[in-house]
């Protein structure tokens, strides 16, 4: 994500989980992240994952029994309210907000026409990511959807993104890169028949690592699951993991030319 923390670009990611202390322990052991709870009762248990003293992402408890354990990708906007109008005007829906988060900024959560949930962040005192594109930091967001043409139309209308066909998996799978100012920052893969029908469209977060195989093995030792084992693709070597509470995320060790 060479482009981030600017309008229409990736800005943040956070984890909603059923067991915050266990999640802090798991990701701390896996990536070296430190959990720092926001010291206000009104924050509702929300906190920040830090790599050293830099923000990696956030975490907090699931707010309702039906809320799944999941990572949520956020994109920066100049106006969360204007974006809400663009989302609903182009077939999406509002999940939460727009709402102010103390003096940090204003957020909203939406679902696109296929049901993939994403957030937007209108920054004030909290700019967003403090570290990306290095081991232990986020490096890619990826939309998995069954209707990529509809997604292209929706996200172009909401964020002004452009697209380019790509083949990062070294296969015939349909893959698209989202671009801003000619630079790729996120991707999209069409979900084919190999995806179970009950798996909804969703956004995936990728964490950069030095050694994909070692981190995948460590995740299993810590009680997580390896859904896609370490696999070599043109950008590097990736794996799809699941934390002990059910949060799904990907890791990737990039080759030199893609780092």
Distance between the termini: 10 Å
Number of helices: 4
Instruction: Report the radius of gyration as a whole number of Å.
Output: 17 Å
% residues in beta strands: 35-45%
- Which spans have pLDDT < 50 for at least 5 consecutive residues? none
Instruction: Describe the largest sheet.
Output: 8 strands, mixed
Describe the protein's architecture and organization.
- The chain starts with 9 loop residues before the first strand and ends in a 5-residue tail after the last strand.
- The model has no long low-confidence stretch (mean pLDDT 94).
- An 8-stranded mixed β-sheet has the order 2-3-4-1-5-8-7-6, with helices on one face. An 8-stranded mixed β-sheet has the order 10-11-12-9-13-16-15-14, with helices on one face.
- The protein has 4 helices and 16 strands.
- It has helices spanning 20-31, 80-89, 148-159, 212-221, and strands at residues 10-17, 34-37, 47-51, 54-61, 70-76, 93-101, 105-111, 117-123, 138-145, 162-166, 175-180, 183-190, 202-208, 225-233, 236-242, 248-254.
- It is of the alpha+beta class and 259 residues long.
């Amino acid at each position: 994500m060479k482009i981030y923390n600017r309008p229409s670009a990736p800005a943040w990611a956070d984890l909603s989980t059923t067991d915050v202390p266990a999640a802090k322990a798991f990701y701390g052991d896996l990536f070296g992240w430190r959990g720092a709870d926001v010291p206000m009762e009104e924050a509702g248990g929300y906190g920040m994952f830090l790599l050293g003293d830099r923000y990696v992402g956030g975490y907090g408890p699931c707010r309702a029994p039906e809320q799944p354990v999941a990572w949520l990708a956020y994109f920066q906007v100049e106006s969360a309210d204007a974006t809400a109008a663009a989302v609903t005007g182009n077939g999406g829906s509002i999940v939460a907000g727009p709402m102010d988060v103390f003096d940090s900024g204003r957020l909203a959560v939406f679902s696109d026409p296929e049901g993939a949930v994403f957030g937007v962040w209108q920054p004030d005192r909290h700019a967003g990511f403090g570290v990306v594109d290095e081991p232990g930091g986020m490096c890619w967001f990826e939309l998995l959807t069954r209707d990529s043409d509809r997604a292209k139309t929706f996200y172009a209308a909401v964020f002004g993104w452009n697209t380019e066909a790509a083949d990062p998996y070294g296969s015939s799978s349909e893959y698209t890169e989202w671009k801003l100012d000619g630079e790729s920052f996120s991707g999209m893969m069409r979900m084919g028949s190999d995806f179970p029908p009950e798996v909804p469209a969703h956004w995936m977060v990728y964490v950069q690592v030095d050694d994909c195989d070692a981190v995948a093995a460590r995740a299993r030792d810590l009680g997580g699951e390896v859904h896609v084992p370490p696999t070599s693709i043109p950008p590097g070597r990736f794996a799809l993991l699941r934390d002990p509470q059910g949060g799904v995320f990907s890791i990737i060790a990039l080759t030199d030319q893609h780092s």
